[in-house]
Amino acid sequence: MTSGATISDPKLLDEYNPFLSMAKGFDQAADILGLDEGLREVLRQPERELKVSLPILMDDGSVKVFTGYRVQHNFLRGPCKGGIRFSPDVNLDEVRALSAWMTWKCSVVNLPFGGAKGGVICDPRELSEGELERLTRRYTVAIMDILGPDRDVPAPDMNTGEQTMAWIMDTYSMHVRRTTTGIVTGKPLAIGGSRGRREATGRGVMIAANQALQLKGWRPEDTRVVVQGAGNVGGIGALLMHREGYRVVSISDMYGAIHSERGLDMPAVMAWLRDHGRLEGFPDAESVTHKEQLELDCDLMVPAATENQITSLNADKVKAKLIVEGANGPTTAVASAALHDRGVMIVPDILANAGGVTVSYFEWVQDRMGYFWTEEIVNSRLEQIMVDAFDEVAAVAEQHDVSLRTAAYILSIDRVASVYRLRGVFA
Questions:
Q1: CATH number, position 134
Q2: Domain of 154, in residue numbers
Q3: Among candidates 254, 270, 304, which has minimal Cα distance to 123?
């Protein structure tokens, strides 16, 4: 799913580099905070990067070597926290950027975590379940020395899920000779998962959208929404927004998008997707391309697929007046600045999609207590944290007359920098 740009164009390489995009946001906030260069260098760089080779016995008896990464950006506020993705597009700069965004994301919602991220270069669609299990377990063993409930707690990300986390938990537990449910989050309920975790990121996107509408004086029933992505973020977010009264006019999957100006019946759309495996063919809606979807006339856009979807190549064609980022890094730094200059409000990823890591925190707490909450308690506490964080970011934006993105960076970086000053430099 792309915006139609080609990353082979040398003019776009810097813009499309997610670590450079993260660094631009960091530097803008650091300038406003007046951080000295030494502290900037500490907070900008990952604390640890691990690259591993993973030889896997394939079903046909051959051996194939995969490459995996785990980057731990920051430990200052607590254990590292961040997902693991399986994708042919995984690269070190992407994992670095995502680990840093996790640090700022955890900080902006005031969780006692630092940021990490992991990935394996592979195409899960080309692997059998047995091959995926062997790959997951081998990856776990390869990075196990830096994992632990008090060190680094992975979670699902692109092309990974509850089963992946169950394999990681089992592999880790077997090696330490005790069942350790707190080693990962996003697990099945039967082995220490939390109620509400699967829906958490999409629910957080909806909560962020609700708060943004209050700032703009809009009503959900008057708001036309385009959602890019139909997974746990986009699909669940669109379904929850539909229930809140929003008019979802378009949603997409990896094959294409559907559009209906009257509004889509989201329960029927999600049922069609479950039954057919793709949105294509859904009745009473027209098919549009991924590129066309981003240019649809709408009030609110939720990019909830992958990074680098709104760029310098299409930002001027985006008609949405409000963007709530469900994915990590869906808007490049260049495009974000251009949209801000046009008066488009962007609720940034480190705030808008923080619902997932917030409920992951709840899961981690429940595992450590051995006591589990009802879904109503989980959702209530999630809403409280998301609303408080949004209000704090909005207040910082007004105080400094900056975008919500820059305000989120200011708030999160200031919290991490304050902890660094309190702890000092170990010598």
A1: 3.40.50.10860
A2: 42-183
A3: 254
| Residue 322 maps to a domain | no
Give the SS3 label for residue 118.
Answer: strand
Distance CA 54, CA 222 (A): 51
pLDDT for res 3: 44
Q: Number of structural domains, the chain?
A: 1
**Does 354 fall in a domain?**
no
Residue 259: strand pairing partners: 250, 286
In this structure, is residue 403 part of a structural domain?
Answer: no
Instruction: Please work out, in degrees rounded to the nearest 5, the angle formed at the alpha carbon of residue 48 by the alpha carbons of 46 and 49.
Output: 95
What is the sign, positive or negative, of the torsion defined by CA atoms of 182, 184, 185, 189? negative
Q: Count of CB atoms within 10 A of residue 304's CB?
A: 31
- Tell me the mean pLDDT per 10 residues along the chain, length 427: 51 83 90 94 94 98 98 96 96 93 97 98 97 98 97 95 97 97 97 96 98 97 97 95 98 96 97 96 94 97 94 96 96 95 97 97 97 98 98 98 97 96 81
- Helix or strand run (H / E) with residue 252: strand 247-253
Could you tell me which residues are beta bridge partners of residue 345? Answer: 322
Q: What is the pTM of this model?
A: 0.93
Q: Residue 189's CB: how many other CB atoms inside 10 A? A: 12
Mode of pairing for the β-strands spanning 80-87 and 63-72: unpaired
Nearest-angstrom CA–CA distance, 377 and 234: 23
Q: Pick the catalytic residue: 81, 105, 117, 187?
A: 117
Q: Is 117 an active-site residue?
A: yes
In a domain, 128, yes or no: yes
The confidence score (pLDDT) of residue 17 equals 87
Question: CA 390 to CA 303: how far, in whole Å?
Answer: 19
